[in-house]
Structure formats: C-alpha cells, structure tokens
TrEMBL record:
Pfam family, one: SVIP
InterPro entries: SVIP, SVIP_metazoa
Gene from which this protein is expressed: 101895184
Biased composition (Basic and acidic residues): 23-69
Organism: Musca domestica (House fly)
PANTHER family per UniProt: SMALL VCP/P97-INTERACTING PROTEIN (PTHR35269), SMALL VCP_P97-INTERACTING PROTEIN (PTHR35269:SF1)
Keywords: Lipoprotein, Myristate, Palmitate
Residue ranges with Polar residues bias: 8-19, 73-82
Domain of life: Eukaryota
Residue numbers spanned by region Disordered: 1-82
Alphabetical GO biological process terms: negative regulation of ERAD pathway; negative regulation of retrograde protein transport, ER to cytosol; negative regulation of VCP-NPL4-UFD1 AAA ATPase complex assembly; positive regulation of autophagy
Protein name: Small VCP/p97-interacting protein
GO (cellular component) term, any one: endoplasmic reticulum membrane
Length: 82
C-alpha cells in the first residue's frame, strides 16, 4: 500500500484557504439572493423607470382617494370663471 499520503485524508492548509469563512459565505449568499430578486422583478420589463413612475402615480391616487374618504367621501368642487 505504498503511494498513499497522509495529506490525502486530513484537511491541509491549502484546502482551508479555498473555503471562505461561514460569515463570508453567508454574506455572499445574501448578495446573490438580492441580485436574483432584483433580476426577477425586472424580468420582462423594457423600461423599469416607467414602471416605477406608474407605481408612484398609483400610490398617489390611492392616497388621495383615502384622504377624500376620510374627509366625508365627497370631493369639494369649485366653479371658477375666467
């Protein structure tokens, strides 16, 4: 059984250098998950800025509707004559 070396069975210094620490690995996994989340959100969207503007506009309309509901439900209209 000659030819076997003891370094084949134990962890050597070279192997420990290849594996990142658990904290580093956790950080890398979080970064990768965040990248995947962002990629999935923008998948199939040609203009992500336009989508953001539409979402902001929708939120503003919803906020105004909620505010109108709190003030009595009837919007206040005023006639203006030039």
């Amino acid at each position: 059984m000659g030819g076997l070396c003891s370094s084949c069975f134990g962890s050597s210094a070279e192997e420990s250098n290849l594996m990142p620490s658990p904290e580093t690995r956790r950080k890398q996994q979080l970064e990768a998950a965040e990248r995947r989340r962002i990629e999935n959100e923008s998948r199939g969207i040609k203009d992500p800025e336009r989508v953001k503007r539409q979402q902001m506009r929708s939120e503003e309309i919803q906020r105004r509707e909620e505010e109108a509901a709190r003030t009595g439900g009837q919007p206040t209209l005023r006639w203006q004559q030039d």
